[in-house]
Specification:
The complex is a heterodimer. Chain A has four helices and eleven strands; from the N terminus they run βββαβββαβββαββα. Chain A is an alpha+beta fold. Chain B is built from two helices and ten strands. The chains are: A alpha+beta, B mainly beta.
């Protein structure tokens, strides 16, 4: 056994770097691949196009909007991660998923050279939430798994609730 | 002169948590690290308080004191880095400890009577009984176990 001095993290494997968007929710920082985000809008600009939706099984989604003939669900990232309630100001509209995410603010863009595997010790929902962890400027930042915001089951609950609401409006 | 030790004697690292000492099989222990920064982020795994960065690796930190002492240890001087097994795959893990660790050789006695699953036995060092930790069982404890293991078995 030995006592060793402090050291800095260094990547052992050559990796291609990845452009990430660093964003805050309830003063916690997260990273998401820029490639996974189609558009960033202010919540105000989306307000006119959004419809309310209420599905008790998916309380993190309160709004939906239509885009390219598809229904997008707006996930409150604070509720998703179990963080204190905040007033999100931005919406990240994801690519290839019918999901938009409410966040507090964009911190900055960053080039991340390595995404470390989430340690096996983490055994809860976070295994679905995160692709891994990034180490940047002496901070460990969870890297978002975009498909982890809504499960297939949650999509089906929301799609059913939305169909019922549309049916009621037509009637 | 070479001291004779019983055949069944094994090496243990003695770690200090609060005012109690526990033992871990020395073969599991990698190093004693200084109190580097604990990084936290949202997750739902009981007992894991965050991660530290050591030698280019991201290492999960287990709040062992919350199970063993019934409360989180607010003061710690080092991280004991040990190996945890996950169905054949091992991973380095950190336990915050409040004092320096010692290496000791002793014969492990099997646990007697009722005992938590995370104690695999007991050794005696200078007359002091010290519980030997089963790290895998300890790390698998859930939030429900917190605070329910506070009795001093010595």
């Amino acid at each position: 056994m030995k006592i060793a001095a402090h050291d800095s993290v260094k990547s052992r494997r050559p990796h291609h770097s990845e452009q990430m968007i660093l964003f805050d929710v309830a003063k916690r920082m997260f990273a998401i691949s820029a490639e996974a985000v189609q558009e960033i809008r202010s919540t105000d600009s989306l307000a006119g196009a959004a419809n309310e939706i209420e599905e008790p099984e998916v309380i993190k989604v309160r709004h939906t909007f239509e885009r390219s003939h598809q229904n997008y669900y707006v996930v409150n990232a604070g509720v998703h991660f179990g963080l204190p309630v905040t007033r999100p100001t931005l919406v990240l509209i994801l690519r290839r998923l019918r999901v938009a995410v409410l966040v507090d603010r964009i911190e900055r863009m960053a080039e991340i050279s390595a995404v470390h595997t989430l340690p096996l010790a983490f055994a809860g929902d976070e295994r679905r939430w995160y692709r891994g962890l990034a180490y940047l400027d002496d901070h460990v930042i969870p890297v978002i798994q975009p498909s982890g915001f809504l499960t297939a089951e949650e999509f089906s609950y929301l799609d059913r609730a939305w169909s019922e609401m549309e049916g009621a409006v037509r009637a | 002169m070479i001291a004779e030790t019983p055949n069944s004697a094994a090496s243990f690292v003695l770690l200090q948590l609060g005012n109690r000492r526990f033992a871990l099989p020395a073969g599991l222990v990698s190093e004693l690290a200084p109190p580097v920064r604990l990084h936290t982020f949202p997750h739902k795994t009981p007992l894991v308080s965050g991660v530290i960065v050591r030698r280019g690796r991201i290492i999960p930190v287990y709040d062992a004191a919350s199970i063993l002492l019934g409360r989180s240890s607010s003061m710690h001087r080092f991280y004991l880095i040990a190996r945890r097994d996950f169905d054949g795959r091992s991973e380095l893990s950190a336990i915050p400890v409040s004092g320096e660790c010692e290496l000791a050789t002793a014969e492990i006695q099997p646990p007697t009577g009722e005992h938590p699953p995370f104690f695999s036995g007991r050794i005696h060092i200078d007359g002091e009984p010290i519980d030997v930790l089963n790290f895998d069982a300890l790390a698998a404890c859930t939030a429900a176990d917190r605070g329910s293991r506070t009795e001093d078995r010595s």
